[in-house]
Sequence to fold (481 residues):
Amino acid sequence: MNVFATHQAPPQTPLISSEKNVLLVGIKPYLGKEIINDQNSPSLRLVSNGRKLILKDANGIILKAKEINIGWRARDLLNPKVFIRKTIGPFASFESAEKVANDLKEKGIESTIAHPLDWEVWVSGDIEIPASIESVYQKIKVSKTVFPYVYGNNGKISLKGPISLEAPDGMRWGKGIYLGPFSIQSDAYGSWTLVEHVPIERYLNGVVPYEIGATSPEAALAAQAVLARTWALANSHRFKVDGYNLCSDTQCQVYKDPSKANQKIKTAIKKTAGIILTWKKKPINTVYHATNGGVMASVDEAWSINQVPYLQMRLDGPKQWTRKVDLPLSNEKYLKSFLFSKSEAFGSDHPLFRWERTLESSEISEQLNQAQKVSSSFYPNKIQVLTRGISGRVTSMKIEGKTGSEIFLKLDEIRRVLRQLPSTLFVVKEIKEGKWLFSGGGFGHGAGMSQSGAIELAKNGWTTKQILSHYYPKTKYGFLP
Fold:
């Protein structure tokens, strides 16, 4: 049986850092992608924070300068390449894509998780996949390649990847300073990525302050450091198809300007150095969020993935309060009582602990259209919650159009499409024709640690270990076995 290639496999990038536990973090993806569609592509401007940058390409070209500008050109291939695949997706998250990839693996079907724009799962075009899994057959002809160049004394000098870049005093990027070293490498889509090769403990300097806030109490900062470290290790395969580990935006953990980490953050990272949370001797999926609205979500209420014992529904507050709450919150009457009565839950001072959002037909229609769910003529006239998870979060909902057409949204897709909603823990009612009031609680998916809850617990004297065992029961706190 022929197994067709699904994509162009980028060459292996050599590790250019001699330090231990180095992560490859994509700082800027999809470089040069516009060239593929015959459009102009912005150049990559690399600026030193001191001494000269040192660039080396795979052909041995060396360039030393305080500023290096890399442009992009397309070259026609003498022999165009053809890739044939069945594409499943798009998915709102890596977690949902990975669930499908794992289900396929159990059936003996190999697949690749990719992120050309949204998350997708690719299977070789000649492999039969179950009819229950929707896929699109794609035959992709690649007739040109994108390559980088720099200007030399005699015009444009072509560069061959992967390219390494040393920054002795760090490199200015965005509004921050990154120490590197870096590589510029091709990806699975014909474009390129600027990647930092950063040791995991230094990587945390660029994650912890932006995820929980630099002024948080020390025990909460340390808890965030343990979670960020564990998450990075458990998810280091996210961008395997593109030859690096993690991205730097919200599809991974936000990673930016590590030079801004204050002493308090560095101490929290140092005090927990090497410590992670494990279950069955493996780093766990340490998902976390801003505030859970008083109730932790079971992980399968957020994503289409299997339940795990350490991410279950639980009320998040003192025992005397939790005893007074009527369960299950999947009962809409109990949920309304929970959302509209005074709460003593941990982290209830967060501004989005309780919230209201008003959405009109035109806004909903526009967002469904942007998500390619409906045509521009779709006009919603009814919104109905179909199912709720055990924590009360909406797991599926139906939006009916005036012409009788129906759209269904599930799990993480709900917030991806209806972007004004801070969480899926809400009740909805029509307040007049074409206008709905969403009343809810929490900000984020609700599974794992509530950062506002952790901050309150730390202020109340809880230790890092106590906070983490509260939000991730049954896990082990310690060094990677």
